[in-house]
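Allow me, if you will, to draw on your knowledge of protein folds for a short while. I have a record of one protein: its chain in single-letter code and its fold written as discrete structure tokens. I remain grateful for any guidance, and I place the record below:
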Amino acid sequence: MNDRSDSLLKVRPEIKTTQLNAMMGNDERFQNETLRPIIKFQNLLLVEVFKNYIKKHKNAFYEFSLEKRLEYIEKSIQKDIKFRNSLKGMIIGQFTVEEYALYIQNSSALNKRMMNMVIERLKDQMQLLENEALAY
């Protein structure tokens, strides 16, 4: 590995996952070994980026019920291609060259996993978004 790869791997949080075993598929292994730590590491940035997205869309998010807010998170990432690509870039930019080589072998399926993980993480962090609502 090179200095960049070593540096990237050192700053990632360690995540305890179910045991990685031989039965695990390549996509699931990549998800657990690469995507989870990166998404956790990028968490605060992802939350701030979503807050900015809300602001750019006239803060309508804060007027919705909890159920509609959860739906808004999902739809904004699934439907807004520019926004989704921006989120993907924040994650892919944290890949080592070796991880990128694995990623491009099945990028479509891995992108789906990646965005589903980001959606769930934002939904789970609704309280951080709620605090912003109190300011409006």
In short: Helices lie at 3-11, 26-41, 43-56, 66-79, 81-92, 97-103, 107-124, 126-134. The radius of gyration is 16 Å.
